[in-house]
Amino acid sequence: MIRWLRQGVLAVLGLVALSGMASAQGGFGVQARLTDIAGQSRDARVSIELSLSQPVPYRLRVLSSPPRLVLDLNTVVWGDAGRVARLQDLPAVKAVRHGILPDGWARLVMDLAQPLILETSEQTVDTERGAARISLALRTAKLDEFEQFAQSENSLIARSSAGFLRPDSPTERRALPLAPRRPVVMLDPGHGGRDPGAERDGVREADIVLRFSRQLREVLLRRGTFDVAMTRDADVFVSLDGRVRAARAASADVFLSIHADALPEGLASGAVFYLLGDEASDASAAYLAERHDRADMLSGVDLTRNTDEIARVLMSVAWQDTAPRARVLAEALVDGVQASGLRLHRRPIQSGAFTVLRAVDMPSVLIELGFMSSPRDLANLRDPEWGKRMAEALADALEAWHAQDMHDNALRRR
Ligand SMILES: [Zn+2]
Question: In the predicted model, is pLDDT for residue 285 greater than 60?
């Protein structure tokens, strides 16, 4: 079943920060392709339709003297210039220009031969194919009506931006870090406080993973490639959502949850790297969309003023970008452990529905360093020397992944 979502221009204005903020920091970027553009004119009515490979935040403005229609999209690859130029065939359109703004937004400007007023604008999303269509319905108007509309429309847009992060607002741009910053690794030692995790021979998983996380932090900081934050640095309880929120608050670029669980004897040994499964991610998106405090689930996006459906679609879009990055991260981690001659599980990459992996715009992996239920693993887990080797292996892996991720990012942006 194909379900089309409808959203008016005001709803869309609330989403303007989806990719601009994050991409300025080298994070995820939602980049759609323009697959088609068509204009139609009948009597006093003009309609314009843009077909896109995926939904994007957009904003529309009507400017007077001379009359112009300005459509900004975040972010769209224009592709074939001739396709866009076709809009000039409309009698109401004198000339068309398009390009990319310095902040990454794509802009389409139509110089109007006659004043046009916007009647409706909406973006519909085909949730099965992921494609989107932006439809503008316009009608010709007298010049004074147009001038009035241009004024009111502009003030409407200015008002609706209050409280939103808008990449085009000077205050928000100033708030962005200007100097390139080090990527932030969020280490999440599992369990803690009233939740000891697995226990064997008087050893608690919560203590083992905290000690290891501190070792890994030290190695990473010494190398100087990353900044490091931790969800806990003491034997305290932190909720699962609280861990993801902490990562968000630290503007983390990558999230590693560290564990050393126990399974029934003999079932598991060696390191395993868990990703959020695709099915679980769909369920997560729905779950997150329904949550009251979803504002912090996607960086830079205020989802609180949007419907669950739109929030869910935007999170799915972000996940499309993040899932392959997390997969590359898990593969790099496996390579790192293998290269160091440390023990790997026979299926070193697995997936599951872990709450701590639910951030849709931050590659996240849950690491089982080993299993306390395996005597050999337990001996390793208790050995600080082994911990140091594992920390160096994971640091190698993070560096390799980051280099790959930057490379992939550059390709995606091309
Ligand atoms: Zn655990």
Answer: no
Q: Please name the helix (run of DSSP H) or strand (run of DSSP E) that holds residue 134, with its range, or none.
A: strand 132-140
107 Cα to the center of ligand 1, angstroms: 48
**Ligand 1 centroid, distance to 150 Cα (angstroms):** 58
pLDDT averaged over the chain?
77
Q: Strand 203-204 relative to strand 116-126: parallel, antiparallel, unpaired?
A: unpaired
Which domains does the chain possess?
4-174 (2.60.40.3500), 184-413 (3.40.630.40)
Distance 206 CA to ligand 1 centre (A): 7
Residue 43 pLDDT exceeds 70 = yes
Spacing, Cα 392 to ligand 1 middle (Å): 21
Give 143-171 pLDDT, tens digit per residue: 888 887 777 644 344 222 222 223 333 33
Span from the CA of 156 to the centroid of ligand 1 (angstroms):
50
Q: Residue-wise over 4-23: b if at least 16 C-beta within 10 A, else e? A: ebebebebbbbbbbbbbbbb
100/333: higher pLDDT: 333
Alpha-carbon span 49 to 38, nearest angstrom:
5
How far, in Å, is the centroid of ligand 1 from the Cα of 202?
A: 16
Cα of 340 vs centre of ligand 1, distance in Å, is 23
Report how far ligand 1's centroid is from the alpha carbon of 342 (Å).
20
* Residue 347, CA atoms < 13 Å, CB-side half-sphere: 6
